[in-house]
Amino acid sequence: MSSPAPTVRCLSDRPVTRDDLTEAALPTEQARWRLERCTLDGEDLSGLALDGAEFIDCSLRGAVLDRARLGGSHWQGCRAASARFELADLTDARFEGCDLNNSSWARARLPGAAFTESKLTGARFTEALTLGLQLQACLLVSADLRGLSFRKQRLQGLRLNAADLSGCDFSDAVLIDCDLSDAHLKNARFTRADLRRAQLGTVQIGDLLQHYKGCTLSVDQAATLVAGLGVEVV
Predict the structure, then answer these.
(1) Is 18 buried (19+), middle (13-18) or exposed (0-12) by CB count in 10 A?
(2) What is the pTM of this model?
(3) How far apart are the C-alpha atoms of 144 and 103, rounded to whole Å?
(4) Which of 52, 159, 201, 233 can bridge 32 by disulfide, Cβ–Cβ 3.0-4.6 Å?
(5) In angstroms, what is the C-alpha Rg of the chain?
(6) What's the CA gap between 191 and 114, in Å, rounded?
(7) For residues 89, 93, 99 and 102, what is the CA-based torsion angle, rounded to 10 degrees?
(8) How far is CA 156 from CA 2, 32, 75, 170, in A?
(9) Digit-coded pLDDT (tens) for 144-200
(10) Distance between CA 111 and CA 191 in Å, rounded?
(11) Residue among 117, 110, 152 nearest 133 (CA)
(12) What is residue 6's DSSP assignment?
């Protein structure tokens, strides 16, 4: 016998507080939230059970969602600059077209989570659990991504300028239209990574040996490297 479909509770076009999201439900009721064009700026939502919730065109600037349960949640067109998701469970969550600049995801659970066409400038993912994390067409300028694994992933349209990629694993990854200019690459691994369609910025031979060892470059990229040594390529 199949389980009944969850009850969807909708809120729209209004300010929403923590109390609004903690109204008592019947013990046997399975419910999830759908919030559209709601304002939750600065709200303390830490520890709330919001699994499967939908946030559509909502504002959560500076909201605190530490330790919140947000597995399977869907975020579309939300404005959540400086929001905190520390230690939150965001397994299989989806973020589409969101402003998440300067947000914090320290030690959050992000297995299977996906960020698409979102702004994550200055975002911090310190010690986050990110198995299967997907990032596509995102702005990650100056983001802290230390130690994350992108092994065997196909990454496209990522702006990683000045991002901290120390200790990241890009082994066997394919980077398309990604910009790594001025990124911090201490102990990053690019073994068998395909960087032929990535922008590397100014790279010295020492950088190539230290950071990009084992990767695949295009003929044009290799020619630029050699030209940087004062050698004419004809």
Answers:
(1) middle
(2) 0.88
(3) 10
(4) 52
(5) 21
(6) 24
(7) 30
(8) 39, 32, 20, 13
(9) 999 999 999 999 999 999 999 999 999 999 999 999 999 999 999 999 999 999 988
(10) 23
(11) 110
(12) P
Nearest C-alpha neighbor of 177 from the set 151, 158, 149:
158
Nearest to 117 by CA among 78, 147, 143, 161: 78
Distance CA 199, CA 44 (A): 40
Q: 138: which residues sit within 8 A by CB, 6+ positions away?
A: 115, 116, 117, 118, 119, 120, 157, 158, 159
**Lowest-pLDDT choice from 8-17, 27-36, 100-109:** 27-36
Q: How far apart are CA 155 and CA 11, in angstroms?
A: 35
Q: At 224, phi and psi to the nearest 5? A: -65, -40
- Report which DSSP code applies to 64: B
Of 134, 58, 123, give the one whose Cα is nearest residue 93: 134
